[in-house]
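Submission checklist for the structure archive. All mandatory fields must be present; incomplete records are returned to the submitter.

[x] Identifier: L-glutamate gamma-semialdehyde dehydrogenase
[x] Organism: Alicyclobacillus vulcanalis
[x] Residue count: 516
[x] Sequence attached
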Amino acid sequence: MIPYRPEPLTDFNNPANQEAFAAALAKVEQELGRTYPLVIGGKRIDTGRYIESINPSKKAELVGRVAMAGKDEIEQALKAAWDAYRTWSRMPVIERAALLFKTAAIIRRRKHEFSAWMLLEAGKSRAEADADTAEAIDFLEYYGRQMIDLARRADDLLTPLSGEDNHIEYIPLGVGAIIPPWNFPLAIVTGMTVSAVVAGNTVLLKPAIQTPVIAYKLVEALEEAGMPAGVVNFVPGDPAEIGDFMVGHKDVRFISFTGSKQVGLHLNELAAKQIPGQRWIKRFVAEMGGKDAIVVDEGYDVEMAAKTIVQSAFGFSGQKCSACSRVIAHESLYGELVDRVAELAKAFKVGDVRDASVGTGPVIDQKAFEKITSYIEIGRGEGRLVAGGTASNEVGFFVNPTVFADVKPDARIMQEEIFGPVVAFTKVRSFEEAIEVANSTDFGLTGSVLSNNREHLAYARHHFHVGNLYFNRKCTGAIVGVHPFGGFNMSGTDSKAGGPDYLLLFTQMKSVSELL
Ligand code: NAD
C-alpha cells in the first residue's frame, strides 16, 4: 500500500485553482436553503422540526434546514446502530479501511465543493476551508492505514510460550456517541466518526448545531462509498434536548467528544454514572479547550515573532482550540513587539469570506459574538487596548482583531478561553518566568517558544506542560500523522487525534490462549 502522506493544500495564487474554487462556490450557492433529513439505519427521516443553519458572514442567508432528532429518534438510532454492529464489527479490517479510502477519494474529487460549504456555513476563508477539507482527507487515509497496521501488528507484540498458541486481537467496543464542535466542521467530524467506525464500532453522529449541513455532506460521501446502513446514524438536534439523554443512555458504550471544557466536564460526569441496565464502564474521550501561549525570548527577531503571533491568534478569527490567546514576551523586546503586533492586527481585513482579499471572517454566531465582546469589555479593565476592540453584528458576526497589552498573568483574559480574535500580552524578566507564566492556567493544549537559545528550548521541552509544543513556529496547524494532537490538564484526555495510538481508544484487546 502507498504510505500515508498529508494531502497537499491548494495554491490559490494559481488562477486555475481560483477559478475552480469560484465554480464550486457558485454551485454550492445554488443549493442554499435546502432541507436535510436525519439518517437512521440508512433511512431518511424528516421530523418536521429544524435547525436553521445560517451563514455567519451574512446572517440573513439560510445555508440549510436540518431535521432535529428528539429522544424517540435517538432510541431508534441506537437500535439501528446495534443492529448494524453485529455485521460491521465482524467485517474484515481491510474492507472497513477500504470504506475510508473510497470516501477520501470522493471528497478529494469534490474538494472545493466541500470547502465552499464551510466557507458559507462556518465563515472559513478559502485557505482555512481548504486546509479543513485536506485534514478530513488525511484522517480518512491515515486511520484506514492505522487500522490495517493495528490488526497486523497484534500478534507480533506477544512473547512466545512453548506449548501454547496465543493470539491477541483489537476488537471494537460497540455503539458510540460522536459529539464534535463546529470549528472544524469537516475535519474533526470526519476524524472522530471514521476513527470509531474503522475500528468496527457503529455510531450516532450528533453534529454541532451551527454546522449540521457540512456534516450531512460527509454522511452522503460515506454512503456513496458504500457504507452499510446503520453504521453512521446522523442525528442532529438540540443538545439541551438530546445531549444528556444520549450520553447518559445505558446502550451507549463510548462517547467521543470534542468541545468546550464546561460541556466536556459535564458529560464526563454523566458518562461516569452507571444506570440500571448498563453493563459496561463507558469509555469517555474528550478533547477540550485551550489558553495557548506564545513565549518570545530575548534576542528573537521582532518582525518574525509578530507575524507568527498574528497568524496564530487571528486566523479563522481565533476560533481554534490551538489559537494563540496569550503572548509572554521578554522585557527587552516587549514594547517593540506589542507595537508591531498592534500594527499588523489593525491592517487585518475582516469581512465576508466570499471576498478573497479578506484576512479573516466572522465569528460563528450571536452567542459567540456576545461572549467575545463581553471579554473585550473585561479586557479594557485588565489591560491596555492597543488594537481592535470593535465589532459589528449587523450583517454578520464580525469582531476586529483585538490586542491588549500589560495584562497580569492571573487576569481573566489570560486565564479563560475566549475563542475569538483576542490576544493578551504580558511582560517577563527571564525565560524561566516566561515558562512559569505559560504553565499557569488550567489548560495545556498548545504552546510555542520563539527563541534562538538552545538551552532555553531544551528547558521548554521539559518544563512547558502542553500536549503540542512548537519551537520557532506558529502554535496552530497540526497535521495528521505528523503532529498527533491533544492536550493536558483541562484541555482533555490527551487522546492525540491523528496519532499512532488514537485508534486504541475505540478498541479493546482480546487475548485468546490455547494449550497445545
Ligand atoms: P461546545 O462544548 O459548546 O459543543 C461541543 C459539542 O457538544 C457540540 O456538538 C454541542 O452541540 C455538544 N453539546 C453541548 N451540550 C451538550 C450536552 N449537554 N450533551 C451532549 N452534547 C452537548 O463547543 P463548541 O462551541 O462547539 O466548540 C468550541 C470548543 O471546542 C472550544 O472550547 C475549543 O477549544 C474546543 N475544541 C477543542 C479541540 C481539541 O482538539 N482539543 C478541537 C476543536 C475545538
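[x] Structure attached
Curator remark: Residues 179-184, 188, 206, 208-209, 239, 243-244, 247, 258-260, 263, 267, 287-290, 321, 417, 419, 445, 487, 491-492 surround nicotinamide-adenine-dinucleotide (CB under 6 Å). The chain has a mean pLDDT of 97.
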